[in-house]
Specification:
Low-confidence stretches: none
CATH architecture of the largest domain: 4-Layer Sandwich
Mean pLDDT: 86
CATH topology of the largest domain: Phosphatase 2c, domain 1
Oligomer: single chain
Radius of gyration: 35 Å
Distance between the termini: 116 Å
Largest sheet: 6 strands, mixed
Strand content: 15-25%
Number of strands: 16
CATH class of the largest domain: Alpha Beta
CATH superfamily of the largest domain: PPM-type phosphatase domain
């Protein structure tokens, strides 16, 4: 059987296209397996369109929230805003049949080729005519372009997914490091003697909390207590709290006067946080010989001191929050005489801001009333019953912030 010249030419054209397709798919696959970046894949794609197919003008647009021109060659697409007309494009189309206005502005372009990923339109290619393969081979050229773009899009989406997973893993490790950092901040043991009993409840809302509490034995007759809350979450918040703890412990152990220690802590926090984060804190020093407690409340929820007769003192004196004002606007040292056994209750705002189904907060009044009424209970029981009451109050809403509660029974 003999072929005419035209048949031989047609056969050669089809054969050439198949060869181009095979080689292009092979080159892209090798590049993908080598994890070449997005731009590297585009350059391979450009080479085949320009040199093998004779398409001198093309633009690749991805559809995210808006149309994004990711890659192109030759004349730029004019009035790309009109691409919104292609939102519902399903099949390969001729530009002039879709939009006469867009076609007149882009006479160098002919085909509109959509591409999809997971069944959704991910973008379009606007391309000129393939000069090396005119009709009827342009249909095969379009099919080849769709094949190559589908390969690229799949690779690009997989790269994005891989990058997302890497970021997730990095974030998970960061959170784990922050959690370990925070774990090391808290005291390993708390006193439980006739003269001093301390009990704490610490419920982080997420893996990393912005809350902190501490107990420091300063001498045989003095000790310090602290409850603090750093703004924000994550590694940066944990590091700032670590910085606060190290600074506070050093200054306390050096027997710095409490007011001077707070001023120094504020200065260091301002330097280390670049005035972007702040800390609220309550620091108290108990002196058994003097039967006195001195304290500074730096913008924190006022702890309360409850006496045997049920009377209550809110501990409000102190300063503004730490880490924002290089020079504290005001500073007052609070002093309270401890002549009999007292119950100290200190907490963070996540506790009083627990909401019920009507979005009403639990509030300070309910908290103080509970502890006054139950002041003679053992601390562990006191905490558990309070958490039960808090859970009943919040119902299905649960707790939406970190919760820290510290109680101390102190005998002079």
């Amino acid at each position: 059987m003999e072929f005419s010249t035209n048949q031989s030419s047609e056969f050669q054209k089809s054969f050439d296209l198949k060869q181009i397709e095979f080689q292009a798919v092979l080159d892209l696959t090798i590049a993908i397996n080598k994890n070449k970046p997005e731009q590297g894949l585009y350059l391979i794609f450009e080479e085949y369109l320009l040199e093998k197919l004779g398409i001198n003008h093309f633009s690749l647009f991805f559809k995210d929230e808006e149309w994004r021109n990711s890659f192109g060659c030759g004349m730029m697409v004019q009035n790309s805003v009109s691409l919104s007309l292609l939102e519902n494009l399903v099949n390969v189309s001729i530009l002039s049949e879709l939009s006469d206005e867009l076609s007149k502005q882009n006479k160098h372009l002919h085909h509109v080729i959509p591409f999809f990923f997971n069944g959704e339109l991910r973008g379009v290619i606007l391309s000129g005519k393939p000069e090396k393969f005119s009709y009827p081979y342009d249909v095969e050229v379009v099919a080849l372009i769709q094949t190559l773009v589908s390969l690229m899009v799949m690779a690009i989406e997989n790269q994005k997914l891989l990058a997302f997973r890497i970021r997730q893993e990095a974030f998970r490790k960061e959170i784990e490091i922050a959690r370990q950092v925070q774990k090391m901040l808290f005291p390993k043991t708390l006193p439980d003697t006739d003269e001093l009993k301390i009990y704490t409840t610490y419920l982080p809302h997420q893996e990393v909390s912005g809350d902190y509490y501490d107990f420091i034995q300063l001498s045989d007759t003095q000790f310090a207590l602290c409850v603090a809350d750093v703004s924000g979450k994550g590694m940066s918040a944990a590091l700032l709290m670590s910085n606060f703890q190290a600074c506070m412990r050093t200054l306390m152990m050096e027997k710095k006067e409490l007011g001077a220690a707070v001023v120094l802590m504020n200065t260091l926090l301002c330097q280390n946080s670049n005035l972007e984060r702040f800390i609220t804190s309550f620091i108290a020093v108990f002196d058994k010989e003097k039967k006195e407690m001195t304290y500074v409340n730096s913008g924190h929820n006022p702890p309360c001191l409850i006496k045997n007769d049920g009377s209550l003192i809110q501990l409000t004196l102190g300063s503004t929050i730490l880490g924002i004002f290089p020079k504290l606007p005001h500073l007052t040292i609070g002093k309270v005489s401890i002549e009999e056994e007292v119950l100290l209750v200190a907490y963070t705002d996540g506790l009083t801001e627990v909401e019920d189904k009507m979005d009403s907060e639990f509030g300070v009044e309910k908290l103080e009333q509970y502890f006054v009424e139950n002041r003679n209970e053992k601390l562990a029981v006191l905490h558990q019953r309070f958490l039960n009451r808090l859970s009943e109050f919040s119902g299905e809403k649960g707790f939406n912030d970190d919760i820290t509660l510290l109680t101390a029974k102190i005998k002079p």
